[in-house]
Design a protein that fits this description.
Largest sheet: none
Structural class: mainly alpha
Number of strands: 0
Order of helices and strands: HHHHHHHHHHH
Number of helices: 11
Shape: globular
Mean pLDDT: 93
Low-confidence stretches: none
Length: about 240
């Protein structure tokens, strides 16, 4: 059996593979649940927080595959809040950024509450930028960018954040995450009036998703975004301003 860090990494890999390709979260859930039990028995607060955070993120990925109206946001928020409380107590900045981002996700995606989500995202970004976690930084920039892109606020700021997110994913090099960065960049470009550039990035994202063998659901999401964009609609089906 590997170290705790290796086990967490293996659990993350199983979770991401389920989220992007297979939909089978069993192995990841077993890994994180076992780590949580071990952590509590050993009094390992850092590991307890990590396991809670990962179980919350797993819950989030599962919710995305179903009707969000049926999602139990209370469970997800509760897990992220427990993880955040521990990480703040420990002074773990990198972990705190991770859990803050998770809370932002829960409020934005499951509750459609940007007003509550944005302070979590902004604090997460401030902390994440101090640490070399390409994926977390990309994710926070991505969701802040969506705030500006989808709210008819400041398209130049949306483009700034989503360009950073795209570049960080490219640097990370994991083909599962790259299409999401590319399609988000395309959305920001469209919102900024860069129609041909935006459409080109959305078409590129669709090809990247197919080349990465992403799930049919994820490919369908990008196909829908592209179809909307081609007739001048944003991902929510509203006219780009």
């Amino acid at each position: 059996m590997g170290t705790t860090g290796e086990t967490l990494t293996a659990g993350n890999e199983a979770m991401f593979e389920a989220a992007f390709r297979t939909g089978d979260y069993g192995r990841a859930e077993e890994t994180f649940t076992a780590l949580l039990t071990d952590a509590r028995e050993a009094g390992d607060r850092a590991l307890e927080a990590a396991a809670l955070d990962r179980l919350a993120m797993l819950t989030h990925f599962r919710a995305l595959e179903n009707d969000l109206a049926d999602a139990d946001s209370e469970v997800e928020v509760g897990l992220f809040e427990q993880a955040l409380e521990i990480r703040r107590e420990l002074g773990d900045e990198a972990g705190t950024a991770e859990s803050l981002f998770g809370l932002g996700l829960a409020h934005q995606v499951l509750r459609s509450d940007w007003a509550t989500a944005m302070p979590y995202y902004r604090e997460a970004l401030e902390l994440a930028e101090r640490h070399d976690d390409l994926l977390l930084r990309s994710e926070v920039h991505r969701h802040i960018g969506f705030y500006y892109a989808m709210g008819d606020l400041e398209s130049d700021r949306a483009l700034h954040h989503l360009k950073i997110s795209h570049d960080l994913r490219t640097e990370l090099g994991d083909p599962r995450w790259i299409p999401g960065g590319t399609v988000a960049l395309g959305i920001a470009e469209l919102a900024d009036g860069l129609r041909e550039q935006g459409l080109a990035h959305m078409r590129q994202a669709l090809q990247q998703a197919r080349d990465a063998d992403l799930s049919a659901q994820r490919i369908a999401w990008i196909e829908k975004f592209l179809a909307n964009a081609e007739v001048g609609l944003d991902p929510a089906g509203k006219k780009f301003s």
